[in-house]
């Protein structure tokens, strides 16, 4: 066959269509990631923390609802939800159905931009360079207040610019969280700490902006959980994320790291805070694609240092 510019263009177009088709399939390949974090005081038995993030749920996503509900088989001691739960103004009953198996156990949450505002149509590639720009058009409100009230009624701790405490499997946890830094709604709560001598200090934020991670590190937290990045969402195999949609470096777009420096488990130096960034479970309904970055929830098994 003679290679002409026309055949090259046709080949590229075909590869693009195939890649896009694959990326819509990968966006539904929900995956459980398991990590172990040596962060508890000496002599303690393990504590299981289920980290959920970025569900971006719509009422028709029954497969996602069933998958999330199935995570209850893990019997976590604590559930932490780092926001961006909703992608439709009428999804709250469906979301509460997904979370229902966890509402009887200790939990904590913060909100993300996609709990306050419904997504708007945009070029999928825009995720790569400026998501916040889409918020300049007047967005539709989502039922964030109703969601927060339902979670608080279930006993989950609301960490929207506040501190709280929770007991999980007999362990006392001091919690601190902020409202979404991506929307500049974050106000780090002043001390003093609500708990004296906890077993663990846990920081929670939706978007892992550096100012928030610095504040949580300076506050003495042992572990910080964050979402928002979608792990880069469209990644390059063998390379990784191209963006974190924040000022966090792409190396830490997802997974277990240290803040401000390296951790697992830093043989040189010390004193960094453990940082876990979830790649999350969803996408915008207007950009339902993931590539080399499956949707995920994480079971963190906390063990003694
Ligand atoms: Fe998100």
Concise overview:
It is built from six helices and twelve strands. The protein has 305 residues and is α/β, with parallel strands linked by helices. The longest helix is centred in the first third of the chain and has 22 residues.
Give a list of the ligands: fe (ii) ion
Helix proportion of residues, in percent? 10-25%
SS element count, helices = 6
Question: What is the CATH first-level class name?
Answer: Alpha Beta
Q: Structurally, how many domains make up the residues?
A: 1
Radius of gyration: 20 Å
State the order of secondary-structure elements, H for helix, E for strand.
HEEHEHEHHEEEEHEEEE
Which range does the strand content fall in?
Answer: 15-25%
Structure description:
The chain is of the alpha/beta class and 305 residues long. It has helices at 5-26, 62-70, 92-99, 113-116, 144-153, 210-218; strands at residues 31-40, 47-52, 78-81, 107-109, 157-158, 162-168, 171-177, 200-204, 223-226, 255-259, 273-277, 296-304. Strands 1-12-2-3-4-5 form a 6-stranded mixed beta sheet, covered by helices on one side. The chain has a 6-stranded mixed beta sheet with strand order 6-7-8-9-11-10. Helix 2 packs parallel to helix 3. 20% of the residues lie in helices and 22% in strands. The longest helix has 22 residues, at 5-26. It is globular, with a radius of gyration of 20 Å. It has one domain (5-304): Purple Acid Phosphatase, chain A, domain 2, CATH 3.60.21. It has 6 helices and 12 strands. The mean pLDDT is 90. Fe (ii) ion is lined by residues 54, 56, 84, 112, 114, 228, 230, 280.
């Amino acid at each position: 066959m003679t290679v002409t510019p026309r055949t090259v263009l046709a080949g590229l177009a075909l590869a693009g269509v195939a890649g896009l088709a694959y990326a819509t399939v990968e966006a539904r390949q929900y995956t459980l990631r398991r990590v172990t974090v040596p962060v508890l005081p000496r002599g303690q038995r393990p504590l299981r923390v289920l980290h959920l993030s970025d569900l971006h749920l719509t009422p028709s996503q029954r497969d996602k609802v069933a998958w999330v509900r199935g995570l209850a088989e893990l019997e976590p001691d604590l559930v932490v939800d780092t926001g961006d739960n909703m992608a439709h103004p009428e999804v709250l009953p469906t979301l509460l159905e997904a979370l229902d198996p966890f509402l009887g156990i200790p939990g904590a949450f913060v909100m993300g931009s996609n709990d306050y505002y419904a997504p708007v149509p945009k070029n999928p590639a825009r995720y790569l360079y400026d998501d916040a720009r889409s918020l300049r058009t007047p967005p539709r409100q989502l039922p964030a207040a109703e969601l927060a009230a339902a979670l608080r009624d279930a006993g989950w701790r609301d960490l929207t610019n506040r501190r709280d405490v929770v007991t999980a499997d007999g362990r006392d946890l001091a919690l601190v969280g902020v409202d979404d830094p991506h929307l500049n709604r974050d106000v780090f709560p002043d001390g003093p700490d609500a708990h004296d001598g906890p077993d663990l200090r846990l920081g929670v934020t939706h978007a892992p902006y550096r100012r928030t991670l610095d504040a949580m590190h300076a506050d003495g937290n042992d572990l910080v959980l964050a979402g928002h990045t979608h792990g880069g969402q469209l990644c390059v195999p063998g390379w990784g994320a191209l963006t974190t949609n924040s000022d966090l470096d792409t190396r830490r777009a997802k997974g277990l790291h240290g803040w401000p420096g390296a951790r697992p488990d830093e043989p040189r130096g010390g004193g960094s805070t453990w940082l876990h960034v979830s790649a999350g479970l969803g996408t915008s309904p207007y950009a339902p694609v993931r590539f080399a970055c499956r949707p995920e929830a994480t079971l963190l098994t906390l063990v003694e240092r």
